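Late entry, evening session. Most of the bench is empty. Finally got around to the prediction I had been postponing all week. Sequence below, unchanged from the version circulated by S.P.
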Amino acid sequence: MPENSSKKRVWEKWVKETVLADILAEETPDPVPMIDESGTELEMTEEYDSYRLGRGSGDYLYILYLLDQPAKKAADVVPVYVGETGNTASRLLDHFRRLRDALPISEWEDEALLNH
């Protein structure tokens, strides 16, 4: 990294060339539904399985991020978690299960309906 590059500039360049390039590309559908909650267990969707990058063997570096819509600049992508795994789908499902269990949104929705 050149001495005059800051971490912020490196992040912005990387986001523009990867995440934003993918989000803004007309040939790739976004957002791609990732999780199927229709059954008793969370599962990855067929759309995600056919779309995701890195469908080979080995370890993958992945990033979970919040996206401010509409995404136009690097600042619209807020990193939440960076991880490494050999099985991206399984690892993401683990994150989604933890989020679902930590944030009982369905319970909040039921309470909201009762209060109206």
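Two things to note before I forget:
The longest helix spans residues 88-102.
The two ends are 56 Å apart (CA to CA).
Will write this up properly tomorrow.
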